[in-house]
Specification:
By secondary structure, this protein is an alpha+beta fold. Among the domains are: 142 residues; 122 residues, Immunoglobulin-like (Sandwich), CATH 2.60.40. It is 19% helix and 34% strand. The strands form five sheets. Strands 10-9-8-4-5-13 form a six-stranded mixed β-sheet, with no helix packed on it. Strands 15, 17, 20, 22, 23 and 24 form a six-stranded mixed β-sheet that branches. The radius of gyration is 51 Å and the shape is rod-shaped. About 15% of the residues have low confidence.
């Protein structure tokens, strides 16, 4: 009986289902994108997994089993300048192997230690100890002759063999639910997001990232401070899911004031405390323009406009005065042309005759003695 139980225990824990596949090599520099999946022990059924890029808009479902290593052709789903490749378990939605890469000859690479730089079309080679290196060896950049058939259509549920109850592993999804379509450099924005998980009352950190050619042109605000994408998780905003494992809320972000303008790719990443699991949202695009220095200019140009308005009102005022003077001259001419001067003549006659009468009376008084002398015998 003891031997039977020992054999059963050995069989369960050496089952091929428990073998863990990983991405050990990749090539993303031309139309012939491919990855190499390796396995350290046992046989792996890759029909339980799919391969996806960063925003998971391109998915390739696998249909093969392998023991050591196998090539997975991906056509053109990987971005040459940089991307994220994930091998995801279908039943749980969790990534079992993830590789982030960039090409510093095409864009600015993030300074994160987990990013592989495939500068000058070199192939990414991921060692078993997960030390990220690159190689320009022609043999390394050659895909394996044995490849796994892929499909863009997910397999039917019957083809998925039950490995373990989904409840045993964490399920996590996050997405950006609302963000302005345009902004200026340095402008504060409210980013609405949601978390859907099977982790009730779990605490998560949230950080935003993105840009035109890098992931470091977006900052996240927490406690009135701004933090870049490479800042510590403990500097980022923290939330807690409800009893149903869900959360909806907002964080404040902004395009960095000193960064370039253009069409920004904006994403958020959430990480559960104490550090696992984590999830990246899909891409939301934000059109970023330069700092609005032109905005005050219209206001300043509008403020002087009231001052010119009185000046036009002043210019007409001299013109009426000129016309009024001519009108006055015309009015005086019309006053002189009619015979209005004789009108006061009847009033001046009494005033003119008074002095004449006085002169006559004075003359009579002067002639009185002379008359008396001429007629001395006159009786008076």
């Amino acid at each position: 009986m003891l031997i039977f139980l020992t054999a059963l225990f050995f069989f369960i824990f050496t089952s091929p289902v428990l073998a863990a596949p990983r991405i050990c090599k990749f090539h993303a520099q031309d139309t012939n994108d491919w990855i190499e999946i390796c396995n350290d022990s046992g046989t792996v059924d890759l029909s339980l997994y799919y391969v996806a890029d960063l925003d998971q808009t391109n998915k390739k479902y696998l249909n093969c089993t392998f023991n050591t290593a196998i090539n997975v052709p991906l056509s053109q789903i990987l971005n040459n300048a940089g991307d994220t490749i994930s091998l995801i378990e279908i039943s749980s939605g969790n990534s079992v192997s993830t590789v982030r890469y960039c090409d510093s000859s095409k864009s600015t690479c993030p300074p994160d230690s987990d990013v592989v730089d495939i500068k000058d079309s070199m192939c990414g080679l991921i060692n078993p100890d997960d030390t990220r290196t690159v190689s320009s060896d022609a043999a390394i950049c050659t895909p394996l002759p044995v490849f796994c058939p892929v499909s863009s259509t997910p397999p039917s549920p019957t083809s998925i063999s039950p490995s373990s109850p989904p409840a045993a592993s964490a399920s996590l999804e996050t997405s950006i639910t609302n963000l302005n379509s345009s902004a200026s450099l340095g402008q504060n924005l409210s980013l609405s997001f949601s978390i859907n998980s099977n982790l009730p009352d779990a605490e998560f950190y949230i950080k935003a990232f993105g840009g035109v050619n890098d992931d470091y042109s977006i900052e996240t605000q927490n406690n009135s401070n701004w933090y870049n994408y490479n800042a510590s998780w403990t500097d980022m905003p923290k939330i807690k899911t409800g009893s149903d494992g869900k959360y909806s809320g907002q964080i404040t972000i902004r395009p960095k004031p000193d960064k370039e303008t253009g069409n920004y790719r904006v994403q958020i990443k959430v990480r559960a405390l104490p550090g696992s699991p984590e999830k990246i949202s899909g891409i939301t695009y934000l059109s970023v323009s330069s700092t609005p220095t032109q905005t005050p200019a219209p206001t300043s140009s509008l403020t002087p406009s009231p001052t010119p308005t009185p000046s036009p009102s002043l210019t007409p005022t001299p013109e009426p005065t000129q016309y009024s003077q001519s009108a006055v001259l015309a009015a005086t001419d019309t006053n002189f042309s009619p015979t209005s001067t004789p009108a006061p003549s009847p009033q001046t006659r009494p005033t003119i005759n008074v002095p004449v009468m006085l002169m006559i009376l004075g003359s009579l008084l002067l002639l009185t003695p002379l008359a008396i002398s001429k007629f001395p015998h006159a009786k008076i």
